[in-house]
Amino acid sequence: MNLQKNSLHTLTKKYHIVNVPLGNRSYPIYIGTNLLKNIGELCVDHTIARTVVIITDEHVARYYLPLVKRSLEKKKISVHSIVLPPGERQKSLETAEKIYTKLLGWNIERNSTIVALGGGVIGDLAGFIAATYQRGIGFIQIPTTLLAQVDSSVGGKVGINHPLAKNMIGAFHQPQFVLADTSVLKTLPKRELICGMGEAVKYGVILDKKFFSFIEQNLNKALLGEHTIVSHIIRRSCELKAYVVSRDEKEQNLRAILNFGHTIGHALEHAGKLSLLKHGEAILYGMIAETNIAFESGMISFADQERLERLIKRIPIPSLSPLRLKNAKLFETMRNDKKVKDGSIRMNLPYTIGKISLPMNVDERLIHRAIDYVKLVGV
Ligand SMILES: NC(=O)c1ccc[n+]([C@@H]2O[C@H](COP(=O)([O-])OP(=O)(O)OC[C@H]3O[C@@H](n4cnc5c(N)ncnc54)[C@H](O)[C@@H]3O)[C@@H](O)[C@H]2O)c1
Q: Which residues in the chain land under pLDDT 50?
């Protein structure tokens, strides 16, 4: 299949393809402007099922559901849609059960395809449905937030939350393709753009010093949503994620580096009851805290710790003060984290900007100190 030479090429030249090489589960990520209207043609090119179920949320549906539906129906694809309220709380077993009931009611068969149209919440939830309904059906990701375009739509990690901890129930289920249309970011609230920037900064720290410098130099333009800058950030982040995922699809070792900032970040997100602090914002604070542990352990220089902190402080994120953080409560969440091994809290810590360790056990006293440190930084 040579999509570049076939129909997509005639549709638009404003796209770029990043491949995720995973043997017979390989797939392309299409990145470009105004691509949403071409989803029907892409589905035909990829021989997607004749019946699809779009899962989306109310915000995204308002702007983009009619366009996506029209494009699919033009290609004689039968479309069902499920529109959920927005927000992290939808990543639950309760919502999943309601969706299964709808799918069964519509007699959705095994050869149908789930289309995730939305941010990371919709992508994770819809992917989980696709991974589990009838033991696994086809799946397409159309990420509509920056966070989903730079990170969550790629790599096949899908799942839901448990009331006690985030992302604890899930699967690896790769999409058939990912369509990242950068035009949809025009309607994205600024706070959501910032969340995406959090994951992009993470890629710079763990793998690519040059990319980190690019973000440093272009942060203001990126936060204003300047198209060429944001497009580069999406493309480079996808390339870096594809590199990691293709070497370690199921997180046996290397893929764990993507969790940088997430152990403490998830605990902070949870402390904010999944609403005071958004995922990407929590990860930005999580990176400050985990880098502090690296500094206190003698792994990273003061200059590099300062450099990362300087960049993060330029990004407007909410103060941590309203969360009234209690270290003991944060530890309780961290102990329920899936990265815990044999009872030890494990993290990937940076050696320098652009290089990170594999997961390592971390002394709990250093975690306490890092939490106190980030509370001070985040007042
Ligand atoms: N699977 C993975 O590898 C992975 C990686 C990172 C994060 N995640 C998960 O991603 C989730 C966070 O995703 P998110 O930050 O995209 O949040 P989200 O999906 O809740 O979207 C944020 C908000 O933006 C709105 N929105 C989405 N696209 C829009 C658009 N184009 N215009 C206007 N509004 C729009 C949504 O309705 C929502 O209100 C978390 O649950 C996190 O655990 C998963």
A: 1-6, 9-10, 12
Q: Under a CB-based contact definition with an 8 Å cutoff, are residues 330 and 271 in contact?
A: yes
Distance 153 CA to ligand 1 centre (A): 10
Last residue of a domain, one of 164, 187, 210: 187
Q: How many domains does the structure of the chain reveal? A: 2
Dist. CA 139–CA 188, nearest whole Å: 24
Express as a percent the part of the chain with pLDDT over 70.
Answer: 96
Q: Are 297 and 280 in contact (CB under 8 A)?
A: no
Please report, for the domain that includes residue 183, its CATH number.
3.40.50.1970
Contact 124, 91 (CB under 8 A): yes
> Which residues lie closer than 8 Å to 199 by C-beta, 6 or more apart?
147, 150, 151, 152, 237, 280, 283
**162 in any annotated domain:** yes
Q: Which residue's alpha carbon is at the smallest distance from atom 7 of ligand 1? A: 152
